[in-house]
Write a structure and sequence with these properties.
The complex is a heterodimer. Chain A contains 3 helices and no strands. By secondary structure, chain A is mainly α. Chain A is elongated, with a radius of gyration of 17 Å. Chain A starts with a helix and ends in a 13-residue tail after the last helix. The mean pLDDT of chain A is 91. By secondary structure, chain B is mostly helical. Chain B has 27 helices and 2 strands. In chain B, strands 1-2 form a two-stranded antiparallel ribbon. In chain B, a hairpin with a 2-residue loop joins β1 and β2. The longest helix of chain B is centred in the C-terminal third of the chain and has 48 residues. Chain B is globular, with a radius of gyration of 30 Å. Chain B starts with a helix and ends with a helix. The relative contact order of chain B is 0.08. The chains are: A mainly alpha, B mainly alpha. The interface between A and B is small, with 11 and 11 residues.
């Protein structure tokens, strides 16, 4: 039986990778993928907690997160397509006209 | 019934004001005159009804509705006719009707809408004046008081395209406002003191009190009311608007000077006779101001060259007489003079209007002369009016002016009597200077060079002139003094109005005497001892001689030896110039009051307080907000990753705080 700490470490590492991806990559699609990685890191920790506590709560909330993530991906990709049509670019730094 | 008196002119105003521009001149003019005549007819009926009551019960009241009901304070919109108000409504509607009829011809050169506008103002003026005299309490009176102020503004500035007319209207309004302010304060003071604004209630509350000594609250309140009266009735120090009011059409001057407006102040004091006679200090002030105004305006009238201005100063002077009478406690005599003055002053103003009409707008008497042959009706009526105002025995002015002078002397005010007699001399002189310069002598005006161009008053104007001239002769005979074998009918008629009535019996219409009679001066109206009769007769002889001397003096100077006048003027250039410039009062007011207020307002209040403090506060708030947001708005960079970064940092900080707390 693998102890809870290991799962949490993997989860933290995945979350850090996702966060780094969001901040460092210059491509909107990659950023969306990185967000998925962050969500799945959280999912992993939920499931790990659920198993160690012996309850189903962690798994249930994971389903919710997956649903929301799917919706988010759909909306996010739609926005990305619209933005690309508009500016011929996927670099988030190109979309800074909404400022003072 | 009572309400119909003011409602008729109001109806005329409503029709002419709303539909006037579509009505022809004939319709709008005769409508306005008809409503005035209807109002006059109702007034006559009401006064007849009043005269049939026993003297102490002569009050007719009509409560229209409760105007204000707030806790203990209940104020009804009540109209009340008593002998004093009866005289006033007859003067207002009677003389007012004649002026309306006269105006239909005088204003005929105006366009249809202007003509209707003129008559709507005239009707409104009569309406407010009737409200003023019929109101049974201070607040209703004040409605009329303000209303006539408004109408005088509208009518004086009737030809508002002319800057001087617009300015004169504004001046009348502003000067009146100053008086009104004091009037409001006086009213409030009386309300605080007596808890009511009804004239009769105040009178019966005051009657049992001892006369105010050492300038108590009554003196203060009455003095404030009197300041209001000086504004309306053109007394020192607020008389300056009346001569300028000559910018209005001439019938308006007649209306303002004879029937309405300027009589309001005299009426108001007569209405509160009981109150005023309990404030001896105020009475002294009233008498002195009245005498001083009479003399001052008389001297100015002597040298003015505008036909209407001379008449305006004579009005101020005659109003001074009325206030002198009020101030010495001879309320009956004051109102009597108001009533006779209405006839001959209206006659004189309408006569001067006929002259101006005939000369196509010429108002300078130096350019007139020799109009007697061309304008016979105008000449004779004007002459009768002048004789009446000069106080020639047998005409209206003689009886009333003599009554005032006698009462002044009988109450021991010898100095004031001397001033009165002197003014009477001046009155006779300047009035006949006017007559001689206008109607006699050689023709000095190009319009008069061809007599065929000169047209006498058209029928509507002539009718009004003749009726008023007859009135100037006959009006005095209702007040023949006891000394001449009469019984001073008007004094006896008015007496109940100047004494307190009991309030408790008022509701049932039965009015009894309560307390002492307020008008002390009325004692002489009922009975006189032999010595008083001798005194009155000798005073009458004196003033008759004075009047005739004045006329003779004017005839000698301006008919025979015109160069005397010029030589006198040249001998005393300083005096002459001071009089011609009306004692520089306008200039003094301008320098001491108008300019300081203007400078303080402009440099202090506008450039200082408004621009720097008020605008500064508003603009300062705006610039503080702008300055701080110019810093804060840098946070909105538009970069999604920057937002995400700040989100992350925030989450880390908050979580960190809770974990490592």
């Amino acid at each position: 039986m693998i102890p809870l700490g290991h799962y949490l470490v993997v989860s933290a590492v995945l979350f850090a990778i996702g966060t780094a991806g969001v901040f460092l990559r210059r491509n909107l699609i990659t950023i969306l993928l990185s967000i998925e990685i962050m969500l799945n890191a959280v999912n992993l920790s939920f499931v790990a907690f659920g198993r160690s506590q012996g309850t189903l709560d962690g798994q249930i909330i994971t389903f919710f997160v997956m649903t929301v993530a799917a919706a988010e991906a759909a909306v996010g990709l739609a926005i990305v397509i619209a933005l690309f049509r508009h500016r011929e670019s996927l670099n988030p730094d190109a979309f800074t006209s909404l400022k003072w | 019934m009572l309400a119909l008196i003011p409602l008729f002119p109001l109806l005329g105003f409503a029709i002419n004001a709303s539909m006037g521009r579509r009505l022809s001149k004939t319709v709008s003019g005769s409508l306005a005159s008809l409503v005035m005549l209807a109002s006059f007819a109702v007034s006559v009926m009401v006064v007849w009804q009043l005269a049939n009551l026993a003297p102490p019960q002569r009050v007719i009241e009509q409560t229209l509705y409760t105007w204000i009901a707030s806790g203990d304070f209940v104020l009804d919109l009540t109209l009340r006719v008593d002998p004093l108000a009866a005289v006033m409504i007859l003067v207002i509607t009677g003389i007012g009707s004649l002026i309306h009829i006269y105006s239909t011809a005088y204003m005929h050169e105006e366009s249809d809408p202007e003509y209707a506008r003129y008559f709507s103002y005239l009707n409104l003026f009569a309406f407010f004046m009737l409200v003023l005299v019929l109101g049974a309490n201070f607040l209703v009176l004040f409605v009329g008081w303000e209303g006539v102020g408004l109408c005088s503004y509208l009518l004086i500035g009737f030809w508002f395209e002319k800057k001087s007319a617009a300015d004169a209207g504004k001046k009348a309004f502003v000067v009146n406002r100053i008086g009104d302010y004091a009037f409001i304060l006086g009213t409030l003071l009386l309300f605080v003191r007596f808890g009511t604004l009804d004239f009769q209630r105040i009178a019966s509350a005051v009657a049992p009190l001892a006369p105010d000594s050492n300038f108590g609250p009554l003196s203060l309140a009455t003095l404030l009311l009197f300041i209001g009266a000086t504004g309306k009735s053109a007394q020192i120090p607020l008389y300056v608007w009346l001569p300028d009011a000559m910018e209005g059409p001439t019938p308006v001057s007649a209306l303002i000077h004879a029937a309405t407006m300027v009589t309001a102040g005299v009426y108001m004091i007569g209405r509160n006779a009981v109150l005023f006679s309990h404030a001896p200090e105020t009475m002294a002030v009233v008498a002195v101001i009245g005498a001083a105004t009479a003399l001052m305006a008389g001297t100015i009238g002597l040298v003015q060259n505008d036909i209407k201005r001379v008449l305006a100063y004579s009005t101020v002077s005659q109003l001074g007489y009325m206030f002198l009478a009020m101030g010495v406690g001879a309320f009956g005599a004051g109102i009597f003079h108001l009533y006779t003055h209405a006839f001959f002053k209206a006659c004189l103003f309408l006569g001067s209007g006929a002259v101006i009409h005939a000369l196509h707008g010429e108002q300078d008497i130096r350019n007139m002369g020799g109009l007697k042959a061309g304008l016979p009706i105008t000449y004779w009526t004007f002459l009768i009016g002048s004789l009446a105002i000069a106080g020639v025995p047998g005409l209206a002015g003689f009886f009333s002016k003599d009554e005032i002078l006698f009462e002044t002397f009988a109450h021991g005010h010898t100095i004031l009597w001397t001033i009165g007699i002197l003014t009477s001399l001046l009155t006779a002189t300047y009035m006949f200077r006017l007559v001689f310069l206008t109607f006699h002598g050689a023709r000095r005006h190009e319009a008069t060079a061809h007599p065929s161009h000169l047209h006498d008053a058209p029928p509507a104007m002539a009718t009004a002139l003749v009726v008023l001239a007859l009135g100037s002769v006959a009006a005095g005979y209702i007040g023949i003094p006891v000394a001449l074998g009469g019984h001073n009918a008007i004094g006896g008629w008015l007496a109940p109005s100047f004494s307190a009535r009991s309030v408790t019996t008022l509701a049932t219409g039965q009015v009894g005497e309560a307390g002492q009679p307020g008008g002390a001066g009325e004692a002489s109206a009922t009975g006189e001892t032999g010595s008083e009769r001798g005194l009155e007769l000798s005073l009458m002889v004196v003033s008759s001689i004075v009047a005739i001397v004045g006329i003779g003096l004017a005839a000698f100077i301006w008919l025979k030896r015109r160069e005397i006048a010029d030589r006198v003027a040249a001998a005393f250039p300083g005096v002459y110039r001071t009089l011609l410039n009306k004692y520089y009062v306008d200039e003094i007011y301008d320098a001491t009051i108008v300019q300081p207020i203007r400078i303080v307002s402009q440099e202090g209040l506008w450039r200082g307080v408004d621009v720097h403090i008020i605008d500064g506060a508003v603009n300062g708030t705006a610039s503080i907000v702008e300055g701080s947001s110019s810093l804060l708005r840098r946070l909105q960079s538009g970069s999604v990753r920057a937002y995400a970064g700040s989100l992350l940092i925030g989450v880390v900080l908050i979580l960190g705080y809770y974990l490592w707390r």
